[in-house]
From TrEMBL:
SUPFAM superfamilies: NAD(P)-binding Rossmann-fold domains (SSF51735). It comes from the Bacteria. Residues 7-218 form the NAD-dependent epimerase/dehydratase domain. Coiled coil: none annotated. This is NAD-dependent epimerase/dehydratase family protein.
């Protein structure tokens, strides 16, 4: 069992970064957060975090922030989720260089977007990666770069999951796809095909999994890769039902997601083009298996769905003012 040391989180104000910070603190790690702009303050950002102001595109800033770190969590995304093609790889290169200089384990939260339909319905960690989306292609390039760096001495850890949901999850299918933009929520949108399953990952569970894996450093391969099972919705109806139950409206209206409209304007709007490329994940039941993770940890951190959904909705201010929370 590895004694907790110092973890640098690049993108510590994002969804997975914030969840990882809180979880690692609970596990006894010293946490350093690299953030753009000014250092955060207030109750939502625990004082034990050592905040470092810097840009993930600034190699010197990342190198300085990683000095003395035992783990580097690469949880950063381009500002506003724009310009992935220009920003993602340079940011990853800076994290790789900093982790190598500090002899730290570099952690990359991965996604299911690496896999296309040819990977089958239950791809394992070694399944072929032929994504249909542009961002999926970038994700594959990121992982290939980590593999190359591992051959040069880097220690890396990739944890792939389904679609994120949870407090602070940012841009995701749960908040923007299922719930839409209205707050409080009055109706839901279903992007899936009836009867087709979909995989979800609750951010606190992902952060806990990363923390437990880092605690097993001596058992990790130099290039370690794991899949999380997360929450599997077998027919596309369980998540909708959990949201309805949490909101106290079992008959809340559910609309079909307007894929036809997204496809119509996709050629002219880059965001809609990327959105339409992800349609296959809602029409094909692609489910990551966690056998390798269970083989090492024995179990996967798993928050009950009703509790996870309630916490997510509460963080999104999705409840009507008259509704009272039913979970702590």
């Amino acid at each position: 069992m590895t004694i907790p040391g110092t973890a640098l989180i690049i993108g510590a104000r994002g969804g997975i970064g914030r969840a990882a910070a809180g979880t690692l603190l609970r596990h006894g790690w010293r946490v350093r957060g690299l953030v753009r702009g000014t250092a955060p303050g207030g109750a939502s950002h625990p004082p034990p975090i050592e905040w470092v102001v810097g840009n993930a595109m600034d190699s010197a800033a990342v190198m300085a922030a990683a000095r003395g770190a035992d783990a580097v969590i690469h949880a950063v995304n381009p500002p506003g989720y724009r310009h992935w093609d220009r920003l993602v790889m340079p940011m990853l290169e800076n994290s790789i260089a900093a982790a190598q200089a500090a002899d730290a384990r570099l952690v990359l939260p991965g996604t299911v977007y690496n896999f296309g339909p040819d990977a089958g319905c239950a791809p394992d960690e070694d399944a072929p990666q032929n994504p249909l989306t542009r961002k999926g292609g970038i994700r594959v390039a990121m992982e290939r770069r980590l593999h190359d760096a591992a051959r040069g001495g880097l220690r890396a850890l990739i944890v792939r999951t389904g679609d994120f949901f949870g407090p602070g999850a940012g841009n995701n299918w749960f908040s923007q796809g299922l719930l839409g933009n209205g707050r409080p929520v009055r109706a839901l949108t279903d992007p899936g095909r009836p009867g087709v399953g979909h995989q979800w990952a609750y951010l606190p569970d992902v952060a806990e999994t990363i923390a437990r894996l880092l605690a097993r450093e001596e058992a990790l391969e130099r290039m370690a890769r794991f899949h999380m099972a997360g929450h599997w919705d077998p027919d596309g109806r369980h998540m909708i039902a959990a949201i309805r139950q949490a909101l106290g409206d079992p008959d809340m209206r559910v609309r079909r997601f307007p894929w036809w409209l997204v496809g119509l304007i996709a050629p002219a709007v880059p965001f809609c083009r990327e959105l339409h490329e992800m349609r296959y994940l809602w029409r094909t039941g692609l489910r990551l298996g966690n056998a390798r993770l269970l083989g090492l940890l024995g179990s996967e951190p798993h928050t009950r769905l009703d509790i996870a959904v309630h916490a997510t909705l509460q963080a999104l201010d999705a409840f009507p003012q008259e509704a009272l929370p039913r979970h702590a």
